[in-house]
Amino acid sequence: MENKVVAHTLDGQVHKGITHDFDPGAEYFHLLPAEGGGVPVRLRLRDLKALFYVKDYFGNRDYKPPLGFGVTAGRGRRCVVTFHDGEVIFGSTPDYVEGAAGFSLFPSDPEDNNVRLFVAQRAVREIRFP
Hints:
This protein is an all-beta fold. The chain has one domain. It is about 0% helix and about 45% strand. The chain has strands at about 5-10, 15-20, 30-35, 40-45, 50-55, 75-85, 90-95, 100-105, 115-120, 125-130. The chain has a ten-stranded antiparallel β-sheet with strand order 4-3-2-1-5-9-8-7-6-10, with no helix packed on it.
């Protein structure tokens, strides 16, 4: 299946493209650049902050997600994820397991450009379950 994603790495790099082979249990995955073809980029999961599954690559730079949970029902347990770089995302996770390499996160705001994320556990400073 083709997934439109934006990969953020721990060192601050951002890669936009399509992936067909992302697997949280694998060591690597590939990203076909969004800029129209080119050579796929090979990314290591251990270098990943998060993989953002997006509606589109442009988003809205003026959009500010609400600091809180929306009125829509989430998928799994509500949580607040704080990354080491200070980014905070309110959402829900159906598969968080302490000590796992990562977990799925669904943003709480339906207006968010992010449909879901794969969050790398090593990029998380704190996760709270209110």
